[in-house]
Design goal:
With 319 residues, the chain is mainly α. It has 10 helices and 3 strands; from the N terminus they run βααβαααβααααα. A 3-stranded mixed sheet has the order 2-1-3. Helix 2 (56-83) runs antiparallel to helix 9. It starts with 8 loop residues before the first strand and ends with a helix. The model has no long low-confidence stretch (mean pLDDT 83).
Length: 319
């Protein structure tokens, strides 16, 4: 090991080496990223500005939108830069930093999704106790616990990677820095790090996913008791779409972080699903299909148009 030179940067191979395909991918992911930012930012602004949405459900949705903006921004800007760059490198410390915030965001999102599932369970199955169970201090504590869990999980895994030595090769068969892609590049034995990462990921999944499945199963049974077929169908449609997004996020993330790294196309596609696509469709599935959000958005737009009209009227009067 003393005779080996320690590398200072990694090379990210990305999704394709073809220049024309990279241009197409740049346009595609730039559109996805801009839509992600606009959709989630719109949700945050609507929730904050409309008093009708100051409830526990939308409190969680606001934090989810902010988290999705952070989650997508960890990897996508660097990926877009590499699509147009000949030198697709990232420093070792930059790579570890990106990995830290990626695991933090992913872990926090998994915990937040379980908190949201429990919130819906309490609202639908125990409506009389809902305001008592899901009061503001409890909601704040749940969101804080989600962020803290993601932070501690990421901190432990990224501190332990400091013990690894990287002396070549330095090519990562991926579009971002994730710990499973770094382990095969280590000159020292990464077995302890691999076990730690797989164990912490499995632990988070076993703690949060059963709570989500339990909550939605109870919700489904409650929906079955609805006498109106129209109301039952609408509720089933909403819950099934929520559950589909959650299972896709958990399934792809668990597959990526528990399975052995191979650098295959499948693993890159899986990473796109939980790292990019989930942040795009969350505001669509959780919020924009919601009638309350649509009504709040219409009220907000109407208020802005009225303010704009009053300002223009005052200017005309002054002239």
């Amino acid at each position: 090991m003393k005779n080996l030179s320690i590398i200072e940067e990694f090379v990210l191979l990305g999704l394709s080496s073809d220049t024309d395909i990279q241009t197409v991918l740049f346009v595609l992911f730039l559109g996805i990223y801009l839509l992600t930012l606009m959709g989630n930012l719109m949700m945050i602004l609507v929730i904050r500005s409309d008093s009708h949405l100051h409830t526990p459900m939308y409190f969680f949705l606001g934090h989810l939108s902010f988290l999705d903006m952070c989650y997508s921004s960890v990897t996508v800007p660097k990926m877009l830069k590499n699509f147009l760059s000949q030198k697709k490198t990232i420093s070792v410390w930059g790579c570890i930093t990106q990995s830290f915030f990626f695991i933090l965001s992913g872990g926090a999102e998994g915990c937040l999704l379980s908190a949201m599932a429990y919130d819906r369970y309490a609202a639908i199955c125990h409506p009389l106790l809902y305001t008592v169970v899901m009061n503001r201090p409890v909601c704040t504590a749940m969101v804080s616990a989600a962020w803290m869990t993601g932070f501690l999980n990421s901190l432990v895994n990224n501190l332990c990677i400091q013990s690894l030595k990287f002396c070549g090769p330095n090519i990562i068969s991926h579009f971002s820095c994730e710990l499973p892609s770094l382990f095969p590049l280590s000159c020292s034995d990464p077995m302890a790090n691999t076990i730690l990462l797989a164990g912490s990921t499995a632990f988070l999944g076993l703690v949060t996913l059963p709570l989500i499945l339990f909550s939605y199963s109870k919700i489904m049974f409650a929906i079955l008791s609805i006498s109106s077929s129209g109301g039952r169908g609408k509720a089933f449609s909403t819950c099934s779409s929520h559950l589909t997004v959650v299972l896709l996020f958990y399934g792809t993330a668990l597959f990526r972080y528990i399975s052995p790294p191979s650098g295959s196309v499948l693993q890159r596609v899986v990473s796109i699903q939980y790292g990019v696509i989930t942040s795009l469709i969350n505001p669509l599935i959780y919020s924009l299909k919601n009638q309350e959000v649509k009504a709040a958005l219409q009220r907000t737009l109407h208020q802005q148009m009225c303010v704009f009209g009053v300002r223009n009227g005052n200017r005309m009067f002054a002239l």
